Every structure is written in structure tokens, then in C-alpha cells.
Amino acid sequence: MAERTVSWGPRASNKLIGTETTRLDGVDKASGSAKYTADMNQEGTLYARLLTCKHASAKITRINVEPAKKIAGVHTVYLFKNEGDDCNWDGDIVAAVAAETADIAEDGVRAIEVTFEEHPHVVDEQDLDAARKAEATKEGIVDRTVGDPDKAIAEADVVHEGYYGIHTISHMCLEPHGAHCTWNNGDDGPKLTARHSTQAVSTTGAQFATKFGLDATDVRVICNFIGGGFGSKFAADEWGWAAAQMSKDTGRPVRLMLDRATELKTPGTRPSGFAKVTLAAKKNGLITAWKSHHWGTNGPQGGTIDGNQMPYVFDFENKRVEVTGIKTNCGPNRAWRAPNHPQLCAITDTAMTDLAAKLKMDPIDLYKANLGQLDKVAQENGDLYRAQLDRAAELMEWNKKFHAHGESGGGSVKRGLGVALHRWGGQSVKCEADVRLFEDGAAQVSIGSQDLGTGTRTVIAMVLAETCGLPIEKVTAKLGSSEYVYGNPSGGSITVGSVSGGTRRAALAAVWKLLDKVAAKYELDGKSLTVGNEAVWSGDKKVCSWKDACRLIGSVPISEVGASPLDDGLTSKLVGGVQMADVSVDTDTGIVRINKMVAVQDCGLVINEMTAKSQVYGGLIMGIAYALSEERIMDNKSGRYINADMENYRLPRIGDIGELVVEMYQPDSEYNRGVVGLGEPPVISTGAAIANAVANATGVRVPVLPMTPKRVLDALKGGQA
Amino acid sequence: MRPFEYVSPTTEAEAVDALNDHDGQTMVLAGGTDLISLLQRDAVQTQRVVDIKKIDTLKTIEQVDDGVLIGATVTLDEALESPLLAGHDSIAQVIDGHRAIQIQSSGTLVGDLCQMPQCWYFRNGFGVLGRKDGESLAELGDNRYHAVFGNAGPAKFVCASRFAPSMVAWGAKVRVIGPGPEDEQFVPLEYFFVTPRLESQGVNVLKPGQLVTHIWLPKAADTKSAAYEVLESKGLDRPQAAAAVCLQTDGDFVRDARIVMGHVAPTPWIAHEAARALVGQRLDEDMAGRIGDLAVSKATPLTMNEYKVAMARAAVKRSLLRAVGKLDDALV
């Protein structure tokens, strides 16, 4: 630290950074003492329940809330929609009722008189011809040609044509969306306190303020714990406004959490993507052309996946990409962990594995043959894939276990391997960290950020403790209130870089100030001093203890605010990763079992290896879900979201996930490039890797994810999936 | 949840009384593992819930002269631990297959038999026939989980009971009491389930004021039994197809057979022809496959559920092999 430049310390000198450190709030969460928005029960809290539309497309011809208001215990009704308004999907919210108890609120919802005029609907997102017939498509969202793909295809040694797809999935936060709002009509304190299940503590306050004509400073947002967001909880949302309005109207706190069915139907989906793909290659595996036509839906808007990023990770000299969107009477989309990427990967990497099968190549060799054709973003991160493919193959025992496409021997259960790869950004953004050192030796960092469960609280504590030379128990990390300095909304895997960069900068500046005070007292050169082991050091000589040093601070604490992002080497951007799957397919029942998954993932400097790995485990599990069982099922006949409950919205159980092997790829070159975000990338290539393993096992491509037993059996029978 | 009256009788007579002495719908509560969620989502409405958990005569598993009597509040776990059911392998296998401590410790065998369909149209308020505006949603809509047998009429749902196939294979009966104070009958389980033509007919023979108090099972003796449920998940799940068998064997040869499929029809589906074809045959992998083929040869899949025929075939084949100890452990 002698130079006083902002940087991370030498890797070997770290006491905390890079270690596996358990979450500071782990016991609170595991024991149930952590309070989530859904747990908030202030004295006098009213409970809200929702009336939703049960038609895919309908106009409200009449609505009368008076009978609800007459029920004893019902305090107020909030209308999301009025007579004459359209409802555009099953689950579109019409009204909220706030009452003394949840049951009374439900009585209130049932008492609302509402009539709908039903209209024809389109909910089929897979059948492009039917959507065109219904005039529900938006053609040519992307229509792009580079080079001469048709010529390249005509001249190719091998051409592969395939059909691939991935269904819509819904956000399924364990803690549904919602808020507990308290309107304050007194003189002191903020007018509105929103205990809000949010990924954006510092920015949703303004959305409440604007709605109610308040100053942004009149709104306080609190979220100490959140039970899942995954991209769907950035907005105040109308149900948040409804809770605030109902609190304002009644003078009582109001808690409005979405019920499970509405949680699945309304606050966001990951759009579907289907595609016809043509790939052309030379005998040595070098891909010379890509053609794809994509379609799918993101709900009423009529968009689908981002065709501009196709093909994924790779870019080929000759390509043609077309995209058709389908406008459906289905719930709208919201960012879902790595928006677009899982779908892009599930189309690109499956087609590449099928091409490899046609070339009679190992798919790893096909990837390697094309590493010279990475797209611009992947190129910028350098060629990490070769090393990651080799390491993943070692962990999977790929060379020992791999067999050619479909050649897994007799018996009804077939085993196979698959591989896929991905990339992500993860660059830090504007964020501040407020670090304070106190005369009693206490050290604190606070940020108006949030811990999504990813370990943000623990990470900033580790950075502060490391920088101060203290054990982690002796520092305090505060998140989850808009009254702290500005923290970025947590989306895009940008948080860990943003908060750790800011914390490190502020902590270094604070420690330097402290060392100057020590230097003055002991008549030493401040720049020659360092901290460590709860003490201040001059070379290997202890000058004083941390506590003694802090006594020099006096009653005015040292306080420093660190900013992000800065181009000082603390943080960086871009990650890559490789995943492999080993599956067994029961060809009599269509059931796919995961034997083992391997993930090799880089993310620059790893602050907490435990929480970093947890991110990857979580990504793999979510990936197994959408690969095998998780999907929104829209019933074409009724237009209803027919599986919007926890029985039929199928998520894997602990027995379904097999053995998960996670390795953070972190040679010194990774440490040296600083911190990069990790939340999203590990969910991207899981689906494609599993799909490829199923194809390798059976010799048949199950084209559409999730690969339910039905789709597997239908594919094996040669029918439509 | 809508408000309802709650009654907690302590004798069978009081239970029948409680079921009868008022107008409107009554529901029986035993384990509550399904009724509560049906009430919460408003798929059924009831004016009164009769909780039978305090009736002592329903709590036991007893040996009777010719078999075993299982009370209506006996849980899955209690049945699994009972030495009186130690020889009924197929029933133990289905209990194990639940893979859910909550269901196994509070759910009851009788409750399972009386369960309402899992059909998503029913659960979303369209009734057991799944109809809207005079049309069958189950016929014209998403019927991937619906019936592949017995589906020619308006009922397309599948019987939700997981124990029905094995118990029908065993020749079980249910003791039904009510509506009169002295009314008591033993109904063969295979005639208990109903394929309704009208919504009001319900899914079993129980009439208002009636209640199943016990299941009667014959002694296991030397019968070989097994069940095989096709479960997508290794956790809590419900089968997409299932089969159960009871066999009398002579060495490798089958003297008598009962084969019953589950989750393929509005009632448990007995494969009479396939069972007859097995009699006198040596039961090996090849024969089990042929019997499986025969069992599903007359299936009538709907628009989206042909895959269930393959599953049912696998379930029949595997339950037969399991009964004679020839099923690969990896497939269990």
C-alpha cells in the first residue's frame, strides 16, 4: 500500500478476498428471522387481494365495487381498470381490495360485480402459420444479410437444416412481487415508506414520488431481503402504487403481495423463440454460413428474441437472420436472468452440435475449429474458451464417456453427453459506497443497494474488512434502504463490480486518512504504513493496534464515499463459460435424468468463492428447470394460462438435479483483470448442453425445450415436438 | 377461502349425522392435503366441512377374518409401518413413490381414493367435465395429461387416485356408511369410481350423506404384487401413467393375473384381456413387453396425449417385471 494507488492487493496477501466465506445473513435466512416484504406486519396493516381477468382478451363492460365496499372489514378498493378498458391476457389485474384480514379481502374481491365482453384470442406462440392466419405477426423485426449465405451453402461440404425452439417461462419468485406501504400524514419523516420487494432500492422511490406528486426525498424504500427477482423487480409497479394509494386513503399500512397465480401470469416472462436454422461447413468443421428464421412471442407487444445477436458467441462470414414476432394474449415479458441469451444459446449451440453429428465430429472439436470466428464481444474477452472447454472436459471425463451421436448401445435407457458455451457483459455502473471509520474501531459500509440473495452484503463486508485488515465480524455492511448513498439497480450482473469497486475505493481513502493520523502521532511517513491483523504496521514492525489507531479519529468519524465505475483496474467486463451435461434418457417413458453437470466459469477476480459458486449452482438448477420441465402452458381453446400453480408449473426437486460440478476459472490473468459480474451467465448454456446430451444419447433431436417426457416420446416417434 | 362451517364428530354415527342434517354441499376432511388447496383456489365450494380425524374407529389398521381393514384416517406412513400390510408390496411401493414427507405423514389412503381430479380445467373452475360455453375444453384444448382410455363420453379427466390401481388389483372393497344412520355396505373398489356423463354425477358412487370409513384388503398370502408409476420428477409429483399387478405364479409361470392401469382413464382401467393372455405364460422381459402392448392396444388418445400410451405400456411391463423381481433397479 506504500504507493497509495487504488488497486486490489497482491493475490497472495489476501486474507478474505478469494476465500469461501459464508453469508453474513445466512443464519437469519435459514432460521426465518430475516424479514422480507411478505413478512411485514406493522400494527394496523391491511391486507390486499386482487381481482384479475380470467379471459385472454376481453373488454370490461361493467364494474361495480360498491358491494365490496359494503362488506364489514373492507376498507378500500383500488381500480387498475375501469369500464370500457381492455384486458389483454388471463391474469390482467382489474382491482385490489384492502381489508382487515386476507379472507375479508377475498370476500371483497368476490363481491365486485364485473362483466366482460369476450373477444377472440391468440395464445399459440409456436404455430407460425396459425399466427399469420390470425394476422397476429409482426414480420421483419430483423431482416439482415451479411455476405452471400446462399452461395456459401451451395458450395459447402456439409449442410445441416434444423428446427429448434424454447418455450416461454414465467418469473416464479418464491417471494411474489409486492409492497408494504405506509403513508405518513404526520409532520416528521418521509411521507411514504415502501417496504418493497425490489431489485432497485435507490431508484423505485422516484417512481412512487412521481405518481403521487411527492418529492423523491419524501419517499423511503426499504428492502433488506428479497425472495428472488431475476430481472422482474425493477419497477414500483402499479400494484406498488395501489398499496401506497390504499394506505393514503385509509391511513393504515397496506400490504399487497401478488397471489401465486397472478405472480406467474402478470409480472413478466422470458419470451419464447423458435427457429429454422441452416448451417454450412467445410469438412474440417469450419462453418461458412448461417441462416435462421426466428419467431416467438413476448406477449401483446409482439416481439420475440433479439435476432441481431444471432448466431450466438460466433459470427460467420455469410449469414442471414430474419425475425417474426407474434402478438399474443399472453402476459408481457420482463428481463429474465440473462435476457435473450439462454434462447440464443439454445438455438445456436444445438444446431452446432447437430452439425457436428453430421460431420461425425466431437462437438468440442467443432467449437475449437470455429474459435477463430468468435463474435466481436466474445473476441474482446480473448479466447478463454479453449482452456475452459479442456478443463470442463477433464471434469466431465468427456474423452472417456463420449460416444458418437445416438450410439449409446442397447437397453431402454440411453446415456449421452452435451456441451454448450456462453458469454456475458458484467461491467460495473454508477454506484456509491459510504465507508465510515469510528473512534471505537468500528468500520461500516453502507450502500443504497440490495442483496438479491447473491451475497452482496457479504461481499462488501469482505472488501471493507480486507482493506482495513480486520476480520469480517468486526465490520458492518448495510444495504437495503434508499436513505443510504446511491446504489445501482441490480440487473445485468453489474452489482458486484459496482459495489466492490466503490467500497474498495472508499475504504482505501478512509484507511489512508487513518494512517496519516497514525503517522502524525508516531512521526512516521504515512505512505510507509499498512494495515493488517487488526493493527497498523511499518514494514514488519507493529506501530499500534487498529483500536489505538482509531482512537485518533475523535468524535467526527472518517467518512469517504467511493464512486463507481472508474477505469482504475478494480473492475472489468465480459465473461465466458462452458457447461457440459451427462444425461440418461428413458426411451420407454421419455423421462430425462441429469447424471452430472459441469460448469467452468470465469468472472475476473473472485471476491467470495462460496457465493460465486452458489451463483453457478443456482444457474445450473434454473437451467435444468427450463431444459426439462419449466414452461408456461397457454391453453389454445380457453386462452387461459392453464398451469399457473406450483403443481403444474413444474420446477425440479432436489432429486432431479444430479451431481453439479462447478469450477471458477481463475488463473492470475483473471485475478489481475479485476471484478466482473457473474449472476446471469451460468444460466445461459445449461439448456443447450442438456438438449445436446439428450440428442447424443438417443440420436434424435428433441427440438423444443423443455424436453418433457411428452416431447421426448413424440420426438422418438418421429412426430412433432 | 370462503367461510364454511366446521364440524368435528367423534363417532361414525355423528359423522353421518353431520353430513346429513343441513342443506347444501358438505366435504369430508381427513388429511386435508388436497381439500384445503381446492377450497383456497375456489375450485369447490362447501357449506360444511366434516373433520373425521377425531373418530377413533377410523384410526386403525386391523386384521379381520379374511383380510385387513384400514381406517379412513390412517396415513400413508402409518400404512407403510404396519406389519399387517407387509405383504402388500404394491401398496408400499406407491407410498414410497410419493416422495413427500408432508403427504406421507398427513395424507390418508382413503383420502387418496376419494381425491378429486387433478385436471387443470377442473382446478381452474370449469368442473370435472372441463366445459365452457357448451364445449369440452378437455377435448378441444390442452389435454396432454388427460385420458387415453374411457374418454369417449364427456369425461376426459383421469382418476387422481394413486392407490386405486394397486387396490383394485388386490380386489379391495370400501366400507361406505350413510346416508341413513344404519346404512352400511361394502363396495368393490373397481365399482366405486364413476365416469360421469353429467357434472352432478361426481367421480365416485358416494351420494350426499355418505362416507367411506374403511378399505378392506384381502390377506397378501402368496400373491405377488407390484406397482409402477411413471413419475417425471424424483420429488413430489403425480404419475402421468401407472400400473399395478397382482400375480399368482408357479415358478416362472403365471397362474392368475390382475393388471390395472392408473392415470389413463376417468377410473382405474383394468386390462382384462392382457391379464388373460398372461395366464399360463412364462413371465420374462419379452412377455412383459407383449402384455404391455396388449394392455394399451385399444387406447384412444386425445389430440395431445398419444405419448401417454407409451408410458402406460412401460408401466404395465415394468410392474409385471417388478412383481417377479426381474425389473432393473435403475428403472425403479
Describe the structure.
The complex is a heterodimer of chains A (721) and B (332). Chain A has 721 residues and is of the alpha+beta class. Chain A is built from 20 helices and 29 strands. Chain A folds into 3 domains: 11-34 and 428-564, Aldehyde Oxidoreductase, domain 4 (2-Layer Sandwich), CATH 3.30.365; 37-119 and 177-257, Aldehyde Oxidoreductase, domain 3; 269-426 and 572-716, Aldehyde oxidase/xanthine dehydrogenase, molybdopterin binding domain (Aldehyde Oxidoreductase, domain 4), CATH 3.30.365.10. In chain A, the strands form 7 sheets. Chain A has a 7-stranded mixed β-sheet. Chain A has a 6-stranded mixed β-sheet with strand order 7-17-16-15-8-29, sandwiched between helices. The radius of gyration of chain A is 28 Å and the shape is flat. Chain B is α+β, with helices and mostly antiparallel strands and 332 residues long. Chain B starts with a strand and ends in a 9-residue tail after the last helix. The model of chain B has no long low-confidence stretch (mean pLDDT 96). Classes of the chains: A alpha+beta (721), B alpha+beta (332). Chains A and B meet through α3 and α20 of A and α7 and α12 of B.
Quick structural gist:
The complex is a heterodimer of chains A (721) and B (332). Chain A has 721 residues and is of the alpha+beta class.
List the helices and strands and how they pair.
The complex is a heterodimer of chains A (721) and B (332).
Chain A: H1 26-31, E1 46-52, E2 58-64, H2 66-69, E3 74-79, E4 86-87, E5 93-99, H3 102-111, E6 113-118, H4 128-133, E7 137-146, H5 149-155, E8 158-166, E9 169-170, E10 178-183, E11 192-196, H6 204-212, E12 219-222, H7 237-250, E13 254-257, H8 260-265, E14 269-270, E15 273-281, E16 287-296, E17 318-326, H9 341-359, H10 363-369, H11 376-380, H12 385-396, H13 398-401, E18 413-424, E19 431-437, E20 443-446, H14 456-468, E21 475-478, H15 495-522, E22 529-532, E23 535-538, E24 541-545, H16 546-551, E25 558-564, E26 575-586, E27 591-601, H17 609-628, E28 659-664, H18 668-672, H19 686-698, E29 704-705, H20 709-716
Parallel strand pairs in A: 1-13, 8-29, 11-12, 16-17, 20-21, 27-28
Antiparallel strand pairs in A: 1-5, 2-4, 2-6, 3-5, 7-17, 8-15, 9-14, 10-11, 10-13, 15-16, 18-26, 19-20, 19-25, 22-23, 23-24, 26-27
Helix pairs in contact in A: 9-10, 9-19, 14-15, 17-19
Chain B: E1 5-7, H1 12-20, E2 26-29, H2 35-40, E3 48-51, E4 61-64, E5 67-71, H3 76-81, H4 89-97, H5 101-106, H6 109-113, H7 120-126, E6 131-132, E7 135-136, H8 137-140, H9 164-170, E8 173-177, E9 184-188, E10 211-218, E11 224-230, E12 241-250, E13 253-262, E14 269-270, H10 272-278, H11 285-295, H12 307-323
Parallel strand pairs in B: 1-3, 2-3
Antiparallel strand pairs in B: 4-5, 5-10, 6-7, 8-9, 8-10, 11-12, 12-13, 13-14
